[in-house]
């Protein structure tokens, strides 16, 4: 049992909440921030919260950001919690990104392509110098206009596909898996992986995508195409029996074109990684496409050596709501757990002291009590071959404290727990008498 | 429905009021908010996957026919949580099924909304066109 009910904190908690509400509002002489202000002027934050909260609703995301004082993971958590209160009416027809109202569309592999390179409202060519005019009330600015051409804008991999130079995506004859309905199981198919990535933490995916570029599972990617804009959502309600258009939402799509794969029957083709996220979130869409491709290593017959290629590792750690829950639960009362740890360490110390006494008697050499304590720093590492050979895993084990039986609530079904317990039969810390052999 | 789904409730209400006195209606279901799971396709054209959910409000209303014949049932599903919009969209959907009212409602409500939405789309397209890279101008500069 991990937690023990503790009474007596109620007033403190209520007062903490009251203080939180006051600090959220901040200086009362500063005007209160409205939701439309957040929706419009912090739109990228709204996009991120909708993506990681896995719920597209700009107004709710703005409210969540306001309530969480701009803590975007907390805001995504609020959206995830809110969505559980609503019934699901239907699922949409798959959105057609080829029919997007494009606001931005670029390709890094073809200069001239049908529909052209449309930069859109990008930061790419800004100088990253602070603009102090924004600190004042800035003048109203208007975007430039030009006569729109209504040329089709085919997706770039589709252009490559016409020549058979890139692998084709096949439709599946089954309903896609849904993480909101069924728990994550392995092996996880690509549909489930893409859903997990689409709601995954931007920072985590960015770091993993970056790691593939630096050589940890690289596949030589090119940004085949990035496009952003509004797509229409169609559903087919049972009572109508035909599809209806229920509105637009903005998505960002990234098509990575990666190095080759061929076989005896299929000549070499480019392979692909795919990213699709809510809102204007190019960094995340690109990272998602890199990680999606990296996770296909085994499918494409590549060695799986890097973290980004390890499907379990990626999917178990991409969700920042789960991650923050498990990391932050450490601050909840573990009084009983810790009492048992205290008993353990006292018993271990007593045993060490007893052994030292016996040695002193037999040796007739006096051993100072302190030496037993200071050996912790001077004695070389005990023989735990698995741990010393794999320092990275040792660090994970030490940081995570999810050994089965330690907390009781954490390790089961959790890959860290499994990794650690697999390691070189790490001895149970409670049974170790050597003070340096605690495993952590 | 595509037009109504992109209009805001207030505007639909104003246009309906301009058209005439909107008839009384009975709510058969809702308006109620819920979710639709949005799907994408792998690579844009492959197997479907679940991208994430969107808030949707639905409503079903019944409107008596103007000639006192059968009733008309209107359905609406619109993204977002605006119940007024869903209700008015369902009402307009019912009115559009009544042959007596159809043309008048279409020209009084749907067409102005569709025009405004087309203008908004054109505006975005114009701004996007202004950021289109004109590589040929670089070529002309070099020669």
Write structural notes for this entry:
- The complex is a heterodimer of chains A (440) and B (143).
- Chain A has helices at residues 10-25, 35-41, 43-53, 58-67, 72-83, 156-162, 190-198, 202-213, 282-294, 311-317, 320-328, 335-363, 369-378, 385-389, 391-400, 415-422; strands at 55-56, 88-91, 101-106, 222-235, 244-261, 269-278.
- Chain A has 440 residues and is α+β, with helices and mostly antiparallel strands.
- Chain A folds into 3 domains: 10-83, no CATH class; 97-126 and 152-168 and 176-326, no CATH class; 334-431, no CATH class.
- Chain A has a 4-stranded antiparallel sheet.
- In chain A, helix 3 crosses helix 4 and helix 15 crosses helix 16 (415-422).
- Helices cover 49% and strands 29% of the residues of chain B.
- In chain B, strand 1 and strand 2 form a beta hairpin.
- In chain B, helix 2 runs parallel beside helix 3 (83-97), helix 2 (9-19) packs across helix 4 (99-130) and helix 3 crosses helix 4 (99-130).
- At the A-B interface, strand 1, strand 2, strand 3, helix 7 and strand 4 of A face strand 1, strand 2, strand 3 and helix 4 of B.
- Strand 2 of chain A pairs parallel with strand 1 of chain B.
